[in-house]
Each structure stands twice: as structure tokens, then as C-alpha cells.
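Hi V.,

You were right to ask for the full record rather than a summary. Here it is.
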Amino acid sequence: MQSNARTACVRVLSSLAVRKFVHLRRAVDLSLAALSLLVSAAARTAL
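Predicted structure:
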């Protein structure tokens, strides 16, 4: 019985970790996109 509870706990924690990783990856992608837009705007104003 202890093994089943542990397996269920690991499954839940794994799904939480995957979800957090997906959100973190999306935040990084959005930050990089914003940075590229900022660099592009700065380059246009410099010319």
C-alpha cells in the first residue's frame, strides 16, 4: 500500500514539475521576443 501512495505522489509531483517547466519556457520565450523587439526599435531610432 505504501508503494501505491508513493507512486501516486511521484506522479503528481512530476506533472507539477512539467507544468512549471512549460510555463518557465514560455516566460523565457516571451522575454526573448520582447528583447528582440526592443533591440529592433533601438536600432531603428539610432539610424
